[in-house]
């Protein structure tokens, strides 16, 4: 969020996305068909948000780069997990 706020004016017309709740299937389709690059960064699996047969059938010729960072953990979450595991 901090990075988006810092550079919002530089890339205002080029960046579009969703922060927070996952978009609907229609919103995913709109985002993927209109992008030249796609970045997913989330604590859950990307494929839990989209239907596999829908994704495979999509025609996204303008999307040249896809980066999927799923199952991401924050430092705080990692520390909580490590502390919990010590006592097991």
TrEMBL record:
Superkingdom of the source species: Eukaryota
InterPro entries: CFAP46
Example of a GO biological process term: axoneme assembly
PANTHER family: CILIA- AND FLAGELLA-ASSOCIATED PROTEIN 46 (PTHR15977)
Protein name, UniProt field: CFA46 protein
Organism of origin: Erithacus rubecula
UniProt gene name: Cfap46
């Amino acid at each position: 969020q901090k990075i988006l706020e810092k550079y919002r004016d530089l890339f205002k017309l080029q960046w579009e996305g969703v922060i927070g709740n996952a978009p609907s299937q229609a919103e995913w389709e709109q985002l993927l068909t209109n992008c030249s690059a796609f970045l997913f960064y989330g604590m859950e699996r990307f494929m839990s948000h989209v239907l596999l047969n829908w994704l495979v059938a999509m025609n996204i010729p303008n999307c040249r780069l896809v980066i999927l960072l799923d199952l991401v953990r924050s430092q705080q979450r990692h520390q909580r997990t490590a502390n919990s595991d010590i006592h097991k």
